[in-house]
Each structure stands twice: as structure tokens, then as C-alpha cells.
Amino acid sequence: MSGDNLQELRANISRRKLLDGIFAILGLLTILVAVITLLALIVRLAIDGAPRLDWQFFTSFPGRKPQQAGIFSAWVGTSLVMLVTLVAAIPLGVASGIYLEEYAPKNWLSALIEINVTNLAGVPSIIYGLLALGLFADRLKLGESILTAGLTLALLVLPVVIVTTRESLRAIPNSIREAAYALGTTKWQMIWDHTLPYSMGGILTGIIVGLARAIGETAPLITIGALTFIAFLPESPIKSEFPFISFEWLKAPFTVMPIQMFNWVSRPEPAFQLNAAAAGVVLIAMTLVMNGIAIYLRYRFRRGIKW
Length: 307
Fold this sequence. Notes:
This protein is mainly α and 307 residues long. The chain has helices at 3-49, 55-59, 72-103, 108-120, 125-139, 146-170, 174-182, 187-214, 219-223, 257-265, 270-302.
């Protein structure tokens, strides 16, 4: 290599290092701006809502007087809707992910399903609300109930659970599968005893992240007719008479915390704005707890797994 070529090569390497450094600085600045802005908004929300966070706020129904209004019906409704979402989305999503990754033949049909499932994860939530309004509320006659809301959010979460399950199963090395087959296991025994336990950390992380997104959704629930003001609780699922369990609460009208916040924010009185800030702090705390659980489960399931 001549001296001119060597000098040109060094100049090219220096220019690439300079571009790498500029890109790293721009990326760091972008992250810092986003994180600082988010922290500033959360701190401002906490400062505004902290005076309203007491026991009475959690155990009182919404009312006309902001000092006496609470989020009792909202957090109970959120919990019940998320329970229905969890029961509907997890078995169906995990089973679909296992089928598509382990059983489905690799042809144009499975490729078409994979593309559609991946794209469904990015569909605006209002579309799911319109779908649920036509399917669950009108066609199946479920009305504006907790069951309809839970199934609507389950539709929202389902693509995330399916994609996460497939990616987690795909990350398992094929040597694990081959070793299981060498011991004489069936395909289902191989999945149940080996690949599914090893991928459980990633699957649970996807499930909880999906639920954390669903807990803050408002548009699909407003579309199906969620109430903005409710001063009673659904019927208790536990009965004193046989069979001791009732599912009537699934048919009850409901509200959730994002809708309660929307109701308070739309009012002109400043005191209701403080209530909305306090409810926002509670909602952020619930989301952070769910994400913290996801991080802990991922660490716990992946601890000790080496391949």
C-alpha cells in the first residue's frame, strides 16, 4: 500500500470515528431531553396531587364536591376490567404463539398470519373500540359491561402476547429441542417441559408490559360506552348461598381511572384538576409496579439459565 493510500485510509477511519462520536452525543442528548421532560411532568403531577392522596380519596365515590370525591369506583372498575383482560388474553395469546412457532407449517398462510399479527400490534386503540362495539356490544349483546371492556382490552393486548411468546420461544436454541427428542419425548412434552419454562421470563414480561399499556387506555373504553360518572360498585362475586360464586358483576356498568381523570380534567373547577393529578399519580404507580414485577420475573426466570 502506497503512502497516499495509507493516508487516505487513516483519514477515512478518523472521519468515521468522528461521525460515531457525533451520533452517540446526539443520541445521549435525545434520551436526556426525553427522560428529563418525563421526570419533570411526573414530579409536577406528584406535587399537585399529593395533598389529595389520603384514605378518603381511595374509599370515596366521585361526587359534585371535589374535596369529597374519590376514585373508589374507578380503581375497582380498573381492577375488574384488567382481571377479565388477563383471563382472556393470556391463555389465548400464549397458545396462539406456541402454535404459530412450534406447530404451524412454514407456508404462505402462516407468513400471512404472522404479518397480520405483527401489524395488529401497531393498530390505533380506537379501532379496537369500534370493533368491540360492533362485535361484543351489538352482535353478542354483551352491552356496555365489564365483560365487554375486558374483552376489548384483551384484543388490544393479544398481538403483543402472541409476538412476545413467539420471540421468546424462538430464542431457545434448537439443541434443547433436539436433546429432548433424543430422550424420546413427544412434541408437546418437549414444549411443556423444556422450551416453555425456559422462555417463561420473556413471555411474562410481554404479558405485563401489554397489561401496563392496557391499564391506561381510554379511547376504546369510551367507544364502547364506559360511564364517566358512577357511584356504585358491581355486584360481589362471592355469595352466601350456593353456588357461592356469582358472575353478575361481569354484566355491570363500569368506569376506569383514565376515564375518571378525563372527567375531572374537563371540569372548570381547579380543585377537580388536583383530583385528576392525584388519580394520575395512582395510575403511574400501578404501571410502575407492574413494570417492576416484569423486571423481577425476567431476572428470576433467566437466572441460572445458560446455553
